[in-house]
Design a protein that fits this description.
two-stranded antiparallel sheet, globular, alpha+beta
Length: 181
């Protein structure tokens, strides 16, 4: 069985191609990846850009792998329940572009930093677990349990970060920080 890093090496042929990209172009290409999930789950994705008009949002990242990271988190948010609303907010500071991906459901108490570990939560879907969300989350029986671990490893390799923001409000907020060019 391969490790997450070995899978990234395999998929990226051993190299992450960090190049200068414009965040809006990456989001446009990424939207195709989550459109099918929106239709299937009857969900909605809103994109809010809080960058100043003179800010091109140039980032240093691997285009294909970053698209996979964003699409994975958006799809996870859509899979929480039917008709989920996922909001992707783009902002930045002097050194990084920040993408906050939130859904409109209350953050479940079982969600913690362990979600970035491979196979986390697989046993939860296979037992009668009592969820503290209303309505309860959809059971992701098709989940392999490696998407967020893969996303975490990709972001480290791109010199960025991915984490859960526990302090903002009661929703589930994932934050991606990507270095600027």
């Amino acid at each position: 069985m391969r490790t997450i890093s070995q899978n990234i090496d395999y998929l990226g042929k051993g190299k992450i191609k960090n190049v200068c990209l414009h965040v809006q172009a990456v989001l446009q290409r990424t939207s195709d990846l989550w459109l099918s999930a929106c239709q299937h789950m009857q969900g909605t994705v809103h994109i809010e850009n809080t960058l100043h008009t003179h800010d091109a949002g140039a980032i240093r990242a691997d285009d294909v792998l970053l698209q996979g990271v964003i699409a994975n988190i958006v799809r996870n948010g859509l899979q929480v329940r039917k008709k989920s609303i996922v909001t992707l907010t783009v902002g930045g500071d002097d050194t990084h572009i920040h993408m906050r991906i939130s859904n409109d459901t209350a953050r479940p108490t079982y969600l913690n930093d362990n979600v970035f570990m491979p196979m986390w939560g697989q046993d939860m879907w296979q037992q009668d677990m009592v969820f503290d969300t209303d309505p309860p989350p959809l059971q992701k029986s098709d989940s392999m349990g490696i998407g967020l671990a893969f996303a975490h490893d990709v972001m480290i390799r791109m010199k960025g970060k991915i984490y859960i923001d526990y302090n903002r409000n009661s929703t589930t907020d994932f934050v991606i920080e990507i270095p600027r060019c």
